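Table S5 (text form). Sequence records supplied for joint modeling of the two-component complex.
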Amino acid sequence: MAKPVEVSDSDWDTQVLQSDVPVLVDFWAPWCGPCRMVAPLVEELATEYEGKAKFFKLNTDDNIRTATRYGIRSIPTLIVFKGGELVDQVIGFRPKSDLKKSLEKAF
Amino acid sequence: MANRDYDVVIIGGGPAGLAAGLYAARGRHRTVLLEKGVIGGQISLTELVENYPGVPNVNGFDLAQTMLQQAESHGMETEYVDVTGIEKSGQRWVVRTGADDFTAKAVIITAGAEYNRLGVPGEEKLTGKGVSYCATCDAAFFKEMEVAVVGGGDAAMDEGLFTTRYASKVHILHRRDELRASRILQDRAFANPKMQFHWNTVVEEILGEELVTGVKLRDIVTGETSEMPVSAVFVFIGQHPNTGFLDGLVKMDAGTHILVDDWMRTKVPGIFAAGDVRQNSARQVASSVGDGVTAAIAADHYITDAFPD
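The corresponding structure-token record, covering 416 residues in total, follows.
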């Protein structure tokens, strides 16, 4: 099973923006209950899309610069990137079908 | 779409539904709980539950997960679907969702309550971008910024005080000239130097394109309008029960809370309601759990009487 990889302010550009395949980033923090509901759904997507897309988690407490850069004001927020560009975002807990729909916009 | 048969279908996975599920499953009824969002409902957004007897301090999300595991260990199933309606089919009920239909001998409605929205321009567009209904979830994103809290009740004061941990100033915007919050919370709020009170004030619009940049206010006494620069608007102006999908099936009061008797029975045989969704709920985790248990026991009695094998 594929698992989302932790990404930080320092490797954001190389991991996310310069990725050659679509990327889904899960913005989360340890104190956020709904984030813990979203995490297993993101893991399931990571398995389904293994090899076709990359999946990252960004801890917003530790990586304020990136959270601020993307105007994160509520978590969980999931953002889909393609070729360094923001394609779509989902704010708050949503069913897996909604997350998949958002990710599909990058294909 | 499949038709799936159960003895008991429970609509809503907050404390009332989880408690009902535990009892129904332990009573050897084939039981499914239907949840459209997050297990735990409102408590899953609560940082700390301090008033659930026997559990001195617990994170709300963790408490809900424990309740879920306990109910599932006794055989309750869980499905993440949105219920769209309930219909009679012979002696059974059909619970319709966006996907499968679920049939039941008894239905327990524990759909809970949802926060009220202001209903002003900018609110929907900027939700999650500075507009929030949960300070404990989102306040951390407004370190050293000025924010607004709308409301004058317990929730507004409680969440406003929490927000002062991060924000440089918290503007309380209240339509009346006095608070409705309990005395202890009022005392704490007035004593906090970061809290600033604006009386007789209503929000007319939330300003901003990508992120919240301010609010447009109106003084309801003088009629004067003004703008206030803030980075967030936290809204705590009460809540309403999630009963829209019932479409006249059961009797409700003027506030659309479901009317039930002491056993959580509606007037419709086989339909029960428990927790925040019913009239006169005490709106506590403990009282909702009690309601859910009562409803499950009443449903058990109903099934035994109405479906003798």
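Note: The radius of gyration of chain B is 21 Å.
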